[in-house]
Structure formats: C-alpha cells, structure tokens
Amino acid sequence: MDRKTIWFTETIVKTYETDFQGKWKPASFIQAMIEAATQHAAHLGFDYSSLLERDMVWVLSRFKVRFSAFPTIGQRVVIKTWPKGIQLRLFFMRDFELTSADGLPLAAASFAWLLINPKTRRMLTPQSVLQAFGQSVPDNDGLSALDEPLNKINSPDGLPERLTAAASYSAVDMLGHANASRYVEWVSDCFSQEEHLGRQFAWLQLNYINETRPGERLSICAGPSAEEDDLWFLQGTNLNNGLKSFEAALGWKQSS
Questions:
Q1: Fold entry, domain 7-142
Q2: In principle, which of 4, 58, 207, 217 could form an S-S bond with 62, CB 3.0–4.6 Å?
Q3: What is the mean pLDDT of the chain?
C-alpha cells in the first residue's frame, strides 16, 4: 500500500459540537484534528494498538492554532494534515489546515507530540520508532501550515482564579488522564457567555506540563496581558499535588 505522507479527511459540524451561537467550539476543532492525526498515523503503520504492543504511545505536548472562521451546524470541514519532522530532538511535529468545502480557510495549526512509555510515563527518543517499526515517520521536508514556534508560555504570576475543574469520568481518556481537548473546554469555560458574545478566539496556544489523573481537580487562573487587552494568559494548577498542569495563551478578535 502506498504510504500517503499528506492526509485528507472530512467531517460535518454536528449540533452537539457547537456553542450557544451555533458555531463550532474551539475544542471541536482540536478533537477533529486529533482524530485526523490518529487516522493518518494508523495509515502510516503507527496505530495505537501497534504502538502499545511496543510500550509506546504518543501524547500531545503543546499546540498552537490560528482560527480564521468558525463553521456552523451542518457545514462540511476538510482537514489536511501531515507530519513535518522532529524539533528539539524530542517533538514529533504535525501541521493541519482546515477549510470549508468550498475552500474557505477555517484554521491552521501546529501540534507537537512526545513519544512515551505508557507504563513508566518516561519519554522515549524519536529513534525508538525506527528501531521498533523499521520505518520512521515522514517529515515532508518540514512543510508548514503554521510556521510559528511553540515556545514556553511563561504566564505571569498572580492571575485570579476563574474556574475549578475536575478530571471526572467524561474527561478521562484511554491513557488514564484528562483528554487533550478537555483542557480547551476548560479554557473556554473560563469566559462567560457574555464574554464570548460578539468575539471569538483569534488564536490559542496550550502547553501541557503535567498530566491530570482521574479524580484530580484543577484551579484555573486567567487574566489579560498588562500590555494588550485582547491577549490573555491562563494556567492550571493541580489542587491534589500542587503541580502546574498546563499554561495557555490566547488572542481575541471580533466575531466575523
């Protein structure tokens, strides 16, 4: 079978994936991109079961997405995704372009995955894939949809608490921790409906720092930049162990 190094798939915006304005929620973008990445990885021979047999799994470490438009109920979304090599000798990079059925840009994103041993939770080197499978992940010569660095965020101290969240049943995935897209829901929930009305995320970066296990609770603090009102920083602290769970930064823009 010919290995497709660039993957195309489609989805339809479903009612339960939209917000009170009928628009695709930010978390729905992330869910769709992760699903497309999972499909492509399986096509390339790196499906979840095969990885697990070799004591390997990929976990999302950080991502950045720029939103151009938010589709509404019933609209088709075309997702194009591809791996683009290794960065910092650790991160498996993958980019995404999302468009409407007629080619209208919806979003561009860059994701960074780490390879870990699911039993020990220790990181594995990218070379482990070649050693275990006899083939490596294609790099597409570094082709980028979003050519922006996924740096540390370094959110300021003293941000006020906006939300407490728990890794309850519906938040936990098959790796036994809070699902990556659930954090995006928590970030979105830090803002009221009134704060969402008339504006939308222009971009979002989220860096996962320590996993959140079942039953653990987070205190999520958020506040605007001192220099720019449309720029916000967020951080989540695990109330069970005191560790920082994630950091995020986002920009707002007026709704289109």
A1: Thiol Ester Dehydrase; Chain A (3.10.129)
A2: 207
A3: 96
